[in-house]
Amino acid sequence: MATDLKTLQSESIPVKFNNIVKRFVSHSGQKDFFAVKNVTLNIEPGQLVTVLGPSGCGKTTTLRMLAGFEMPTSGQIMIGDQDVTHTPPNKRNVGMVFQSYALFPHLTVFENVAYGLQVKKVSKTELLQRVQQVLMIMNLLELKDRMPASLSGGQQQRVALARAVVTEPKVLLFDEPLSNLDAKLREYMRDELRKIQQRLGITSLYVTHDQAEAMAISDKVVIMNKGEIEQMGTPWEIYAKPTSRFVADFMGKANFLPATVRQVEPSKLVLDLMGEILEVEKDQTFPVKNGNQVTCVIRPEFWHIDAEGKLKGKVTRATYLGNYVEYEVSLNKETIVVVDYQHYMRYGFYREGDDVQLSLKKERISILP
Q1: What class of enzyme is it (predicted)?
Q2: Long-range contacts at 21-26 (CB < 8 A, ≥ 24 apart)
Q3: Local structure of 257: helix, strand or coil
Q4: What is the mean pLDDT of each successive set of 10 residues along the chain, which is 369 residues long?
Q5: Quick one: which H or E segment has residue 6?
Q6: How far apart are CA 14 and CA 82, in angstroms?
Q7: Is the dihedral angle over the CA atoms 44, 86, 223, 283 positive or is it negative?
């Protein structure tokens, strides 16, 4: 893929959503539906920000408002220093990669990629140069005369991306672009998309419902729920330091266990978790006092199967998944999920009904009210 990218690179610019609302008016006597409620989001120049959430959370509507396919009911959308809130799509200089690829079936790969430049009435010499270059970047040069129907899913996706970037957009939008690919190809293509986005330095907004995909490609992840932003941060912050039960539960598996605050210190909390005294980092955003009940968010991999572990439980289910074993363990009337990446390789894995002793990676525990 080594080639000169200078003619495709442009100065990265920021994108801002300022208090955006999208309301769909009901004509059946029911309440109006708010697809997006008071969303404020800043995307730094060159960043790839992923909007993640369940179906109906407002993520696709947010993307479509940036593209210009939907107009906000109120609020402001800025691309660089330009207010594009009510600007038509063809005046926004935004490229979009669709879930369905949306390739023209009667045009070759070359013609599909060149289409946007033809619409812009770019000179033939410049068109040939830019299309040739982007085909090289996407490893599509040898396929330039093929028709879309003769391409694999991954090849079609690369053509769709090539068509989006050849026009040198200021912002690149991805609407669940990998959802039609099989698991292995999806993993490969997400890495390729990320490499290309970083090399070109295009400010990007990516919408997906796949948590692993969001974690793998994003500079920042935005979790939406019922039209509002629940939390935003780096992938590590979203996963390791969720600020709500919804975020913790949505971003992979999590155990929610009750604990009592025994002592509050400047930099740590002392907790009683099922009889075990734990010291955890004091970084929660809500006030706590001695005697308060809190909820510990413990990811399955934060448990450690340990012969010296003080917490004793019984395996109720064991699932062997190749590089790890996932257990459900009954622990003090609670059922928890435990993931074992190492213990089973040396000692084998436990069966249903076996007793286990567990300890915790205490520095990884998050606290919710």
Answers
A1: translocase
A2: 21/72, 21/73, 21/74, 21/75, 22/58, 22/61, 22/65, 22/70, 22/72, 22/73, 22/227, 23/73
A3: strand
A4: 48 94 83 93 96 93 96 96 94 88 91 91 92 88 93 88 88 88 82 85 92 93 96 94 92 92 87 87 79 92 87 94 93 91 86 92 81
A5: none
A6: 10
A7: positive
Alpha carbon 7 to its chain centroid, in Å, reads 30
Is 97 in contact with 162 (CB distance < 8 Å)? no
In our burial notation (b when 16+ CB lie closer than 10 A, e otherwise), range 41-67 reads bebeebbbbbbbbeeebbbbbbbbbbb
CATH 2.40.50.100 fits 253-362, yes or no: yes
Other Cβ atoms closer than 10 A to 128: 14
The torsion angles phi and psi of 361, rounded to 5 degrees, stand at -80, 90
List C-alpha distances in Å: 307 to 90, 159, 231, 236: 64, 54, 38, 30
pLDDT digits (tens, 9 = 90+) for 266-293: 888 889 988 888 888 877 667 888 988 9
Query: How far apart are alpha carbons 148 and 135 in whole angstroms?
Result: 14
Quote the tokens at residue 153: 């899913």
**Which segments of 265-354 are extended strands (E)?**
268-273, 276-281, 293-298, 303-305, 311-320, 325-331, 334-340
State pTM to two decimals: 0.86
Please check whether the domain covering 15-245 is classified as CATH 3.40.50.300. yes
Residues 6+ apart with CB under 8 A from 223: 52, 53, 229, 230, 231, 232, 238, 246, 247, 250, 251
Enumerate the domain spans of the chain.
Answer: 15-245, 253-362
Q: Is the dihedral of CA 88, 21, 35, 203 positive or negative?
A: positive
CA 195 to chain centre: 16
CB 298 within 8 A of CB 365: yes
What dihedral angle (degrees, nearest 10) is formed by the CA atoms of 189, 192, 197, 199? -170
Q: Is 12 helix (H, G, I), strand (E, B) or coil?
A: coil
153-165 and 124-137 are packed helices; what angle lies between their axes, rounded to 10 degrees?
A: 140
Which two structure tokens, joined as six digits, stand for 9?
């690179």
Q: Phi and psi dihedrals of 267, rounded to 5? A: -120, 0
